[in-house]
Please model this.
Amino acid sequence: MKNIDEISRLSADDLDRIGQDDSVQVPEDFRIRLPRRSTAVWAVAASVAILLGVGLWSLPKPPKDTFDDPYLAHAAVEQALGRMGDAIALGARKVEAAEVEFDKINYWK
Amino acid sequence: MKKLYAILILLAVSVSAIAQDGRSLYAKYSDLPGVEAVYISSAMFRLIGKIPDVELGGEDVNLAPIIKSLKGFYILSTEDPAIGKDLYADVTKRLDRGEYELLMEAKEDGQVMRLYTAGDDFTVRSFIMLTRDGTETSFIGLDGDMPREQLEDIVLKAVEE
Model:
């Protein structure tokens, strides 16, 4: 029986010829023993691939830009940021009003 | 091995969490009738290039560093009560996951305004404004790598005004 080094030196044609030669008997106790870890690694790799595939597939595609014209886009950004600024100012006014009330309470104490 | 599977599950959860960003909200609501929707991509922001100073609260504020760091800009606004209710619930559900920090909340005459940020001590990766004014519900979302210090300076400037 050939060892692994001898087999690795055989050409593809030789391997094919030996494979078709019925006179070559496969030993009864012949078993391919893969390291146990290898199975686990492959299982993990497959799991990662599936999870990533599912995750990426579930991600929505980037939407189409609303504006083709950068000036219009700029105007929309400006307007939205202005709205945000107004909202922040509203919050600030509430804080200021609360401070005035607290000052009044503290004054009468 | 169990640890590895736990990491994999966490990875899957985080991937699906990323999917629930402004993009997925936009995808869900932008085509509905009665919804005003605006999306501006990072490519468009690059095209805009140098943004002139934007007037905010009566004072000129240089928003260029923030604008340049943006990767996506989403606006969803509706006066449809049913859609508005769904949108508000969807956004709130996302915000309640714990990734976002409430920056400010103001309520006045039935108007509710909330500002949220997500990120770390140095970078704001997402900035969200959610408002409800009567029947109108609005969502404004900014995704990017915004320098926290600059963003907070702008917010403070608006507050000072």
Helices of chain B lie at 2-19, 22-29, 42-48, 64-68, 81-95, 148-160. Chain B is about 40% helix and 40% strand. Residues 29 and 124 of chain B are 25 Å apart (CA to CA).
